[in-house]
Structure formats: C-alpha cells, structure tokens
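It is worth pausing here to work through a concrete case rather than discussing structure prediction in the abstract. The textbook approach is simple: state the sequence, then state the predicted structure, then interpret. We follow exactly that order.
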Amino acid sequence: MKFHQILNTFIITIFVLQINGCLCINLNSTDASLAFSPAVATWYGPETGSGSGGACGFDNDVANAPYYGLIAAGNQNIFKHGNGCGTCYQIRCTKDPSCSGSPITVTITDECPGACNNQAFHFDLSGKAFGYLAKRGQDYALRKRGIIDVEYQRVPCHYNANIAFKIDTGSNPNYLAFAVENVNIDGDLAYVSIKPSNGNSLAMKQSWGATWNVGIPIGIKGPYTVTITTIESRRSITAYNVIPANWSPGRRYYSNVNF
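Step two, the predicted structure:
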C-alpha cells in the first residue's frame, strides 16, 4: 500500500474515533454538574445546630446517626405536603467568596412555610449544614449573609443504617402510629401497611410527613411486619416482625432491611 493510502486510512480512522469516542454525549454520564438547578438557602436555629424533624415526625432524631444534623426544611415545592420527607438533595454554593463550591447532601426533615414560598425552591438548612457549604474557616462569614444563592439536585439517599420505625407518643393498643426513618434510595413513602401475627394486613394512612397510622382492631396482636412502598420508583420492601408485641410509645425499632 502506498504511503498516501496509509495516511488517508489513518486520518479516516482517527476521524471515526473522534466522532464515536470524543464528540458524543454520554447520556449515562455521572457528571453531577449537568443536573444542578438554581435555588436559595437560609439557615435556622443555633449556628452549629442540627435543626429539627418536626413536620416529618423525626423529632430530634435528626441530630444523631444517620442524619448527623445535615438536614433541611423545604418550601412546598420540596416538602410536597409531607411527601418530600426523607428525600435527599445535594446542595452547593459557588457565587459567594466564602462558598466552598463542593456539594453537601442533606435530608428533608421539616417544612419551611410562609415566605419560603416566595422563591421557587428554598432550602432552610440547619446551622450545621449551612456552615458545611463554606470554605474552611469561612462558615461564620457565610452565615452572616443570611440568604444565599445555591444550586441543588435530588440524589439517592445512602444511609449506613437500616430502616427504623419511631413509635408516635400518641399510640395506644387501639391506635398505632410511627415515623419511617432512614429509607435508602428514594427516601419517600407512597404506601405503608402492617401485618399482625394473628390477622391480615392493615393499610396505614399518612398522618403527617413520614408518620403513618392505623386503627388496631380488638384482639389483633404483634409482632407486626411492616411493608413500605416508595413514591419515586415504587420500590417495596418488607421488615418482618420489626415492631414487637410489647411495643412502647416513643421507642424506635430497627429493621434488618433497607433498599
């Protein structure tokens, strides 16, 4: 083969490789920067506080594992009348000199009502989480801004813990309510049911946030098996005999499962 034929073949090969390998967009790319959208963020509570889980039913559990205070209250487009409870978001700030530019992951555990709905997407972070948006040593300066522009994207939740059920303090032998915590991947809840040891499954109703309830018929006893289904992907999982027959209001019971 003559030199110019070899050269032409080489050039064509490189051109094809460029088209197929370098110039095409990978739709399965893990480059998270492609998915961020604009929002605003504020903070509440003590400067390094862990926030609260009130409107979702998580109470002060948010200060402990697996949340560690990295939580946020969301306005209605995020809280979604309680259906946003337990969902996870990456948030980053880049426009302020005190911003680190690195994303943090937070869980939605509360609602930010009222003026928070003046913006399309408003995250009211715990003082601790807000400080994590800053460069090292710049957290105080960033908090002084009060409200900042941020970018966000929803991401799968990944907790180093199994699903837990926190029994509501208003529960009694004829009425059982609990908050569902630590749900991996989707984080949200579409459907919850319990199956007693001596009866058929009972569909639960959403009380508020991640707290669900059901009336217990006379004679029905635990231990109770709980099945949950998520909103986002309709995944289902069952925690067998997770709530004991002698359950107590205010107690938390850990399953041995998660998504």
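Step three, interpretation. The chain has a mean pLDDT of 90. The CA atoms of residues 77 and 121 lie 6 Å apart.
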